């Protein structure tokens, strides 16, 4: 309950109790005690959580407009949510009818169905200075003509059920320069005005029929295949279903190449986690409090595990120490930095201000912490 309530607070939502009352009409004493323990903490945080505004510079488009209501929630949307959360991105989930201009970058995860109206809206957004990252079949125009958003010809599914990507100094810069497997079938594209950012590499064969390899896929044959990523102005396209792959397998190299593209298109992001000094499971949400004239960085860490087939569990709260996070404050001057739940002022030796960013070393996060950056 702590995690669920605190996660709601990080997103600016209210939290309330909803459950089935026993037919005898009596509350469980143990449950009532738990509610009291958690909601007393929620009440104490109200001055710092009420009437705050979201800060998001990235939007992730949901495929729900074309969603089959008999199916589960989109795997690609789940994967995108997980990946961007781990990267510390500040993002909203939007639909095609919402205002695009609020965001610096829009992500089109794997399966956004194209329409003339959406294509025009995205092109207008890009011409107005917006950035787009599309993956796999998102905005596939379904014909042999050049896709005006990506600058590619879309040729359908790949011949290979699993192929590879080859990192380079621009995309996958911190990865070894050797092949990394992509666990699900991608798309075939040819450049038609775009430039190649990342190559795919073909396997020897598909692991099927008479062709067998003791691994789940054949090794790399070393032959460069169709482009794995292209750039057309301020639009980057990945030919693999990055987000469905991440939901199904969570390969670190998929997150790494996506993060590099974010840096190419959007070097000034609102929040940045330090890869070497911040755990991937730390959730960070930045909110603005007008009444307090401050930025509120919500930090949440409750390690979740899946020991059972049908249930995720949080068995213990594990404190984190010395987590490094960068917060973009722009031209605003910082008066003080405080850890609200710890009740401590963060010393100036634990943060620096440069180039619009406040570089924080957060001494301790015991499950949930709010770092208040008071502005002058």
Task: Give structural notes.
Residues 82-139 form the Beta-galactosidase trimerisation domain. This protein is of the alpha+beta class and 376 residues long. The protein folds into 3 domains: 2-17 and 26-52, no CATH class; 58-265, Class I glutamine amidotransferase (GATase) domain (Rossmann fold), CATH 3.40.50; 272-375, Golgi alpha-mannosidase II (Immunoglobulin-like, Sandwich). 20% of the residues lie in helices and 32% in strands. The protein contains 7 helices and 22 strands. It has a 9-stranded mixed sheet with strand order 3-2-4-5-13-12-11-8-9, with helices on both faces. A 6-stranded antiparallel sheet has the order 1-15-16-22-18-19, with helices on one face. A 4-stranded antiparallel sheet has the order 14-17-21-20, with no helix packed on it. The chain is globular. The model has no long low-confidence stretch (mean pLDDT 94).
Strand order of the largest sheet: 3-2-4-5-13-12-11-8-9
How many E-type strands? 22
Structural class, from helix and strand content? alpha+beta
Overall mean pLDDT stands at 94
* Total domain count: 3
Distance N to C terminus: 36 Å
Assigned CATH superfamily of the largest domain: Class I glutamine amidotransferase (GATase) domain
Question: Low-confidence segments, ≥5 residues, pLDDT <50?
Answer: none
The secondary-structure element order is HHHEEHEEHEEEEEEEEEHHEEEEEEEEE
Which band does the percent of strand residues land in? 25-35%
The CATH class of the largest domain? Alpha Beta
CATH fold description of the largest domain: Rossmann fold
Shape summary: globular
The major pleated sheet works out as: 9 strands, mixed
- Helical residue percent band: 10-25%
What's the gyration radius in Å? 23 Å
CATH architecture of the largest domain: 3-Layer(aba) Sandwich
Q: How many distinct helices?
A: 7
GO biological process, one term: carbohydrate metabolic process
Protein name: Beta-galactosidase trimerisation domain-containing protein
Domain Beta-galactosidase trimerisation: 82-139
Pfam families: Glyco_hydro_42M (PF08532)
């Amino acid at each position: 309950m702590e995690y669920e309530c605190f996660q709601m607070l990080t997103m600016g939502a209210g939290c309330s109790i909803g459950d089935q009352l026993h037919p005898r009409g009596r509350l469980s004493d143990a449950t009532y005690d738990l509610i009291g323990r958690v909601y007393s903490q929620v009440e104490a945080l109200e001055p710092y959580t009420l009437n705050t505004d979201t800060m998001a510079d990235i939007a992730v488009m949901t495929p729900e407009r074309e969603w089959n209501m008999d199916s589960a929630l989109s795997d690609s949307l789940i994967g995108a949510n997980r990946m961007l959360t781990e990267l510390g991105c500040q993002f909203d989930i939007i639909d095609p009818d919402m205002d695009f201009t609020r965001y610096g970058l829009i992500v089109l995860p794997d399966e956004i169905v194209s329409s003339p109206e959406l294509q025009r809206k995205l092109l207008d957004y890009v011409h107005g200075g917006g950035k787009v990252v599309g993956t796999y079949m998102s905005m596939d125009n379904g014909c042999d003509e050049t896709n005006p958003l990506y600058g590619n010809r879309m040729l359908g599914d790949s011949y290979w059920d699993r192929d590879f990507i080859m990192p380079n100094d621009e995309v996958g810069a911190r990865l070894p320069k050797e092949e990394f497997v992509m666990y699900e079938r991608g798309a075939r594209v040819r450049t038609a005005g775009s430039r190649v950012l990342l190559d795919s590499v073909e396997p020897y064969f598909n692991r099927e029929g008479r062709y067998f390899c003791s691994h789940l896929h054949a090794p790399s044959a070393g032959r460069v295949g169709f482009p794995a990523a292209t750039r057309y102005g301020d639009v980057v396209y990945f030919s693999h279903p990055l987000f469905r792959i991440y939901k199904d397998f969570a390969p670190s190299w998929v997150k790494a190449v996506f993060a590099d593209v974010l840096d190419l298109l959007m070097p000034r992001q609102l929040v940045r986690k330090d890869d070497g000094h911040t755990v991937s499971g730390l959730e960070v949400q930045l909110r603005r409090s007008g009444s307090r004239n401050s930025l509120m960085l919500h930090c949440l860490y409750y390690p979740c595990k899946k020991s059972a087939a049908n249930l995720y569990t949080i068995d213990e709260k594990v404190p984190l120490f010395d987590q490094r996070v960068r917060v973009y404050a722009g031209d605003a001057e910082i008066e003080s930095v405080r850890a609200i739940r710890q009740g401590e002022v963060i010393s100036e030796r634990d943060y620096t201000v440069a180039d619009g960013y406040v570089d924080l070393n957060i001494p301790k996060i015991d499950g949930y912490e709010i770092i208040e950056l008071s502005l002058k």
